[in-house]
Design brief:
This protein is an alpha/beta fold. The protein is built from twelve helices and eight strands. The chain has an eight-stranded mixed β-sheet with strand order 3-4-2-5-1-6-7-8, sandwiched between helices. The protein is globular, with a radius of gyration of 18 Å. GO terms for molecular function: ATP binding; ATP hydrolysis activity.
């Protein structure tokens, strides 16, 4: 599986075309706003004229399409278990971004075994030339399989909040990544109540990582806590969303 990740990375860095940068967006625990951060980064790049693809790799519990209020026709499970190809999975979102949904509310758990990983990487090679940026929106936590996707990325964004549990789990994620490979890791603090709190969180996180792992994190910045984000999502996620969802997903 690691060889497949290496092959994918080499493909995306071919010198005969502009480099497609692959960014894995991760968090130690759920509920820290990782997918919101990923989506807004993608939209910002698209508004700058870049071609951007988000792949939601939280298969079966994906939420990027929910944040956009969209119901995709196909999901990653259709690629992994059925005969759909990756071009059929790509949907359009706001600002012209492209995305592939991981799917929500499936009645079966999809295990990313070696055969499925090989199929996924082979399909991803087919679209490697079409985008400037590919965001991998990873599920919370870390598994052997998810590490393979992270290792295939050029850079890693780690999203945390100032809460102690979120910081502890984010540190564990960073430790796992560094044990696997010396990658460039950026730190984003989300939902900070103040600039002072954000700076304290970033400073302490970088000090601990340097002291115990002998690794430097890159400070990407912080995002203030904004209750409007939560209210906006609740307003969008109402009964009409359920009504428009395909029945085979709900049953």
């Amino acid at each position: 599986m690691h060889d497949q990740a290496e092959n994918l990375r080499r493909l995306l860095q071919q010198k005969d075309r502009p480099e497609a940068k692959v960014i894995a967006v991760v968090s130690g625990k759920g509920g820290v706003g990782k997918s919101n951060v990923c989506l807004n980064f993608a939209i910002g790049l698209a508004e700058m004229g870049k071609k951007v693809l988000i792949i939601d790799l939280d298969i079966g519990m994906a939420n990027v399409n929910i944040l956009m209020g969209l119901n995709p026709t196909y999901h990653l499970i259709d690629l992994l278990e059925n005969e759909r190809n990756i071009w059929e999975l790509i949907e359009k979102g706001p600002a012209g971004i492209s995305y592939i949904s991981g799917g929500t509310a499936f009645d079966t758990f999809v295990e990313m075994n070696e055969m499925r990983l090989h199929k996924f990487f082979s399909q991803l090679e087919l679209i490697g030339r079409e985008f400037d940026y590919v965001f991998l929106d990873m599920g919370a936590g870390v598994t052997k399989e998810s590490l393979e996707f992270i290792m295939a990325a050029n850079e890693v964004f780690v999203v945390t909040t100032p809460e102690p549990t979120a910081m502890t789990d984010a540190y564990s994620m960073i430790k796992y990544i560094f044990l696997k490979e010396d990658k460039l890791i950026y730190l984003i603090v989300n939902r900070a109540d103040s600039e002072q709190e954000a700076k304290r969180t970033i400073k302490s996180f970088k000090q601990v990582t340097l002291s115990f792992l002998s690794k430097e994190l890159v400070e990407l910045g912080f995002i203030p806590n904004d209750p409007v984000v939560s209210r906006g999502l609740k307003h969008k996620f109402h009964l009409s969303y359920w009504i428009n969802m395909p029945k085979q997903v709900l049953l």
